[in-house]
Design goal:
Number of domains: 1
Number of helices: 11
CATH superfamily: NADP-dependent oxidoreductase domain
Structural class: alpha/beta
Order of helices and strands: HEEEHEHEHEHEHEHEHHEHH
CATH topology: TIM Barrel
Oligomer: single chain
CATH class: Alpha Beta
Radius of gyration: 19 Å
Largest sheet: 8 strands, parallel, barrel
Distance between the termini: 46 Å
Strand content: 5-15%
Strand order of the largest sheet: 3-4-5-6-7-8-9-10
CATH architecture: Alpha-Beta Barrel
């Protein structure tokens, strides 16, 4: 297997990196690792985190061949990016692709979202400065369903992002959101080429509605990032944070699945990630990992899968627990975030 462009002799171990699968990221020049590192957990967004454990997680991921990192100002109100900026001082720039975002900011409801040209320009400058980078590989417009409209984003946010690309401050343009239909609408309406989409919590053991849109996104030559394979904690052993917008039916079903997994000698998170890693047409699966143990656990599932018994448990959960849900997403409740 060919080594990726992000391979750095002396930093990487060639035999370890060669285990990782790399995919051409849509029509871009990037070849991204099948597993990528989500840095939302480098903040309190998903509970406690540690400086040293985050650093070790990043180093282990990169040295294991992961070459795609994703963060945002929203993650801890710049804390995630601040940590990455510190860690990057000791890491070769050519060893990773950095993806970050504009559009979502503070905890206060009236300051959480701002898709204006002025704020977007400020955020691009802030992200570069905080991360300590000369350029960002992918800049995404964050959760566009919360903008006044898709047209507002196209008229106000997008021109500033294009300006940054033309100046060499960013390389590629992307968009993120929960309703996949809104991502499609944005790509259709955009007057400039959009390079990638990040869809979160829409292709996992609970909800696979992203599949309906994959043929369109592939036809457009988009890089496709599948994020939140554990549905933002619903499919984890700890369960979701109290801010999670899913309704009680979904939360209860996930608890039932969690308990059933444990009763049968396995973990729901392992089954859920095995399901995610076996979905076709995804260029990279973005996984929140803020400890080296989490990195190791995800690499183990990625490379080794699950046992036949665990596969039976997974199929039971999908067929007998999640299939009974009247609704397996929370688009109607998504505004609970704000």
């Amino acid at each position: 297997m060919d080594l990726p462009n992000t391979f750095v002799p002396g930093f990487h171990d060639e035999s370890i990196v060669k285990k990782m699968k790399y995919n051409t990221f849509g029509n871009t020049a990037l070849k991204v690792s099948e597993l990528s590192l989500g840095a939302a957990g480098f903040s309190t967004l998903y509970g406690a985190y540690g400086y040293d454990s985050c650093k070790l997680a990043l180093l282990k991921a990169l040295k294991s061949g992961v070459n795609y990192i994703d963060s945002a100002y929203w993650y801890g109100q710049n804390v995630s990016q601040q940590l990455l900026g510190e860690f990057f001082k000791e890491i070769p720039r050519e060893s990773y692709y950095m993806a970050t975002k504009v559009g979502r900011y503070e905890l206060e409801k009236d300051r959480m979202f701002d898709f204006s040209a002025e704020k977007t320009r400020w955020c691009i400058e802030n992200n570069l400065k905080t991360l300590g980078l000369q350029y960002i590989d992918i800049l995404q417009i964050h959760d566009i369903e919360f903008a006044p409209s898709v047209d507002y984003v196209i008229e106000n946010t997008l021109p500033v992002v294009v300006e940054a690309r033309d100046k060499g401050l960013i390389k590629y343009i992307g968009v993120t959101g929960y309703p996949v239909s809104v991502l499609k609408e944005f790509v259709e309406k955009s007057p400039v080429k959009i390079d990638m989409i990040l869809s979160y919590a829409r292709l996992n053991l609970l909800d696979d509605s992203l599949k309906e849109y994959l043929p369109y996104f592939k036809k457009q030559g988009l890089g496709i990032v599948n994020a939140a394979g554990l549905a933002m904690g619903l499919l984890s052993e700890k369960g979701p944070q109290n801010w999670h917008p899913a309704d009680e039916n979904i939360k209860n079903a996930c608890k039932k699945a969690r308990d059933y997994s444990l009763e049968n000698g396995t973990q729901l998170s392992k089954l859920a990630m095995h399901y995610v890693y076996n979905q076709p047409d995804i260029h990279t699966n973005l996984v929140g990992m803020n400890t080296p143990e989490l990195v190791e656990a995800n690499l183990d599932v990625l490379y080794n899968g699950v046992t036949p018994k665990e596969e039976d448990v997974l199929n039971h959960i999908k067929k007998n627990i999640f299939s009974e849900l009247p609704l397996n997403h929370w688009e109607e409740n998504n505004m609970k975030w704000v």
